[in-house]
């Protein structure tokens, strides 16, 4: 369903859905704008989070970043023709704690091992994300080849 602001892209209902009314991505012309993406799974749990029986939890930014980039790749695969992370030209990374920068970069570099092929990127520290278990969120812009 294309509208005046492009074509929305949605993951199927088994995957994590937006917490408000917005698509996982929007295609406008030859540009794909992927909404901020987290490590949240379809069942509401989060990759990179260990919850203890007392309700406390520990987070792993490396694992969360890997899950976020995997989730973004899944969204890009739904575009026709299917895209990949190689089509990403710009990324914004939101970290709750800038001290997690090295762990985030370690995961990032697994997905983008060649700096000459990696997208432009901005990383910012934010006060918080929508869930206390989230330490990283990434939004990207990709182009159709």
Write structural notes for this entry.
19% of the residues lie in helices and 29% in strands. The protein contains two helices and eight strands, in the order βββββαβαββ. It has helices at residues 61-77, 101-111, and strands spanning 7-9, 25-28, 31-37, 49-51, 57-59, 88-95, 120-125, 136-143. Strands 1-2-3-8-6-7 form a six-stranded mixed β-sheet, covered by helices on one side. Strands 4-5 form a two-stranded antiparallel sheet. Helix 2 (101-111) links the parallel strand 6 (88-95) and strand 7. Helix 1 packs parallel to helix 2 (101-111). It starts with 6 loop residues before the first strand and ends with a strand.
List the helices and strands and how they pair.
Blueprint: E1 7-9, E2 25-28, E3 31-37, E4 49-51, E5 57-59, H1 61-77, E6 88-95, H2 101-111, E7 120-125, E8 136-143
Parallel strand pairs: 6-7
Antiparallel strand pairs: 1-2, 2-3, 3-8, 4-5, 6-8
Q: What distance separates the N and C termini?
A: 22 Å
Summarize the biggest pleated sheet: 6 strands, mixed
Tell me the Rg in angstroms: 15 Å
User: How many helices?
Assistant: 2
Shape descriptor: globular
Helix-strand topology string: EEEEEHEHEE
Mean pLDDT: 91
Question: Helical residue percent?
Answer: 10-25%
Q: Give unreliable regions as ranges.
A: none
How many strand elements?
8
Strand content: 25-35%
The largest sheet has its strands arranged as 1-2-3-8-6-7
Question: From the helix content, strand content and strand pairing, which structural class follows?
Answer: alpha+beta
Short description:
The protein has 145 residues and is an alpha+beta fold.
